[in-house]
Amino acid sequence: MPRVLLIDDDTEFLDVLSEWLTGRGHEVSTLSDGTAVLTALDEFQPDLVVLDGLLRGTSGSTVAQEIETQRQLRIIYVSGLPRDEFPADRPVFQKPIDLDVLDRFIREEVRAAADGT
């Protein structure tokens, strides 16, 4: 069961996505901002992070850098911002997102990480 940490300041979107992914067999933990991300990494031990590109008070890129100082994790951006606002090597899903496509992508990313690719 993939363990997914969701970080988004839109709590309604966060609730919908969390419930949807949980219903498809993912174990999910949520944060509505990036302030407690290091604690969440230690306590929840996610397989990957789904991260909003723009959080209240900070950017998704800043939170991603903080994550990368602690763990080698795959990060998927979900945002309403244009694609060119993100690093070229990062997957980005534009809001509104197709939840089925995101679910498949998460599973592929977790499988690739487990295989070391």
Automatic annotation (TrEMBL):
Coiled coil: none annotated. One of its GO terms (biological process) is phosphorelay signal transduction system. The keyword Phosphoprotein applies. Gene3D superfamilies: 3.40.50.2300. Transmembrane segments: none annotated. The modification 4-aspartylphosphate is found at residue 52. Keywords: Phosphoprotein. Residues 3-110 form the Response regulatory domain. Signal peptide: none annotated. PANTHER family: RESPONSE REGULATORY DOMAIN-CONTAINING PROTEIN, STRESS RESPONSE REGULATOR PROTEIN 1. This is Response regulatory domain-containing protein. It comes from Vulgatibacter incomptus. The lineage of its organism: Bacteria, Pseudomonadati, Myxococcota, Myxococcia, Myxococcales.
